[in-house]
Amino acid sequence: NNGFTIETSPNARLKYTGSETVETQIIFTVSTSQSSGPSHDVEFALFKNGVELGGSRTIRTISSSTWGSISVFGFTALSTNDYLEVKVKGDAYFTMNVASAFISVMGSAQ
């Protein structure tokens, strides 16, 4: 598991289980579209232990039948049992299609 465990309750999150504190760079990339309707602004942000990582909030306008990608970046130190989440908020209720998504966490011990 390379020091990380995927948890699904209460939300999907990536939990750091390593023993050393590490300085990390986090990159989340997602490809999205919507089936129909007007365009919507969608905010993506990285969270550590339920607190938003400053500077990680990114906004993408999602249009009907048009695919596009966005990347969200963050930097933080992780200690044992810290967890990471990606939260998404739209400007209205609509269905967002996701073609692919991945998260990369790179770091080095302090």
Summarize the structure.
This protein is mainly beta and 110 residues long. It has strands at 4-7, 13-16, 22-34, 40-48, 51-52, 58-62, 68-78, 83-90, 96-109.
**Low-pLDDT regions:** none
Q: What is the terminal separation in angstroms?
A: 20 Å
| SSE order | EEEEEEEEE
The dominant shape is: elongated
Secondary structure: helix percent: under 10%
Largest sheet: 6 strands, antiparallel
Could you characterize what this model shows?
There is one protein chain. The chain has 110 residues and is mainly beta. 0% of the residues lie in helices and 64% in strands. The protein has no helices and 9 strands. It has strands at 4-7, 13-16, 22-34, 40-48, 51-52, 58-62, 68-78, 83-90, 96-109. Strands 1, 2, 4, 5, 6 and 8 form a 6-stranded antiparallel beta sheet that branches. The protein has a 3-stranded antiparallel beta sheet with strand order 7-3-9, with no helix packed on it. A hairpin with a 5-residue loop joins β1 (4-7) and β2 (13-16). The two termini are 20 Å apart.
